[in-house]
Amino acid sequence: MSVNTIKGSDSSFSAISRSIAAAALLILCLMGGASTLRADQEEDDRILLRIQVRLSGQVTIDLRNFVMSVTDRIVTLQGNVGSIGDREKVVRLVSGIVGVDGVMNGITVRPSTRSDASIQEEIMRLLERRPRFREQTIDVSVSGAVVRLTGEVERSLDRYDAGEIASFVDGVAEIANEVKVRTEGTIPLEIVLERVRSVLTNTLTFGVIRDLDVQIDQAGVVMLQGTAARQSTKETAERFTLGVPGVSGVINRIEVLGS
Question: pTM for the whole thing?
């Protein structure tokens, strides 16, 4: 009987020990999880601060019109701006901030009381300020705050810039950029590809994309891959590419280090 009692006590003691060990392990796991949660929250807080600092330096952006949050490095944006250009600018700036893995864009453009004629006049005036647009034909029409651009330009960059200029005009709700590029399809693709590579690898003009890979499809759309130290470098590479005659568009897959 005493032997059986002793064995029973040992068994009970072992069970208790295992329970204590399991409880201790659970506590350690919970502490580790809490520590990870705190670290993640601290990183989200740092990202939010970076966003506030970046946007506070933009003249046309009023932070009082925004509600922003960051969860697991994903930024949620809510608020309103005066133009579709400002809306895209905010998303572009936030996407380029170190630590941001994605952006959920809930930004809207504030309704405007401006007339279509007033919007058209301002866009035409802004285009006229650029010497290169004085020598090229770009027609502007506006209906219901929707801007339609037509005409012909020499480079895809000119078409892109014309659309961007119009996008920052208050009251513009949408842009239909139908501007044609004269050089599209007129230059052999291998020559276009070689010119793009030459521009992006020339250290006197650019040459700061690591592991640069450039490809072009049959439609003249260029795909860029590689790594850059800054978001601005990635954007400059795209503009340089659009400036090469014969390029019809750009797919920019350059990664920004640290983002």
Answer: 0.71
